[in-house]
Amino acid sequence: LYPGLSGIDSVQCVCYGPMMTGVAAEVTLVQVKSAGDVAAVKSILQARVDTQVAGGAWYPATIEQWENNSRIVSKGNCVMLIVSASCDDIVKDFNAKF
Questions:
Q1: Of 8, 39, 84, 94, which has the fewest CB atoms closer than 10 Å, so is most exposed?
Q2: pTM (2 decimals)?
Q3: Quick check: 87 and 71 in contact, CB under 8 A?
Q4: For 73, which DSSP code?
Q5: Strand partners, 7
Q6: Could you tell me where the DSSP H helices lie in 12-75?
Q7: What span, in angstroms and rounded, lies between the C-alpha atoms of 61 and 59?
């Protein structure tokens, strides 16, 4: 799902996605060892979003969810991708942790 991510030296990486393609929801959290890798992780996560929007999400409703309700944010060496109807609330919660 995230080509190139396994090549980045991370402290921790957690990915969650539903087992059904008809549901657009995803959470990916990556803490990298080097701040220099944050941009690369963000690029990899953006490629995931772009692929899903380009038709990888299969269904019009899920493509729309990926296009309108996905966010990639970072704080320090931590990067998050969230795809959820409540993505902005989750981003606020993420930012509050720092």
A1: 39
A2: 0.95
A3: yes
A4: E
A5: none
A6: 38-51, 60-68
A7: 6
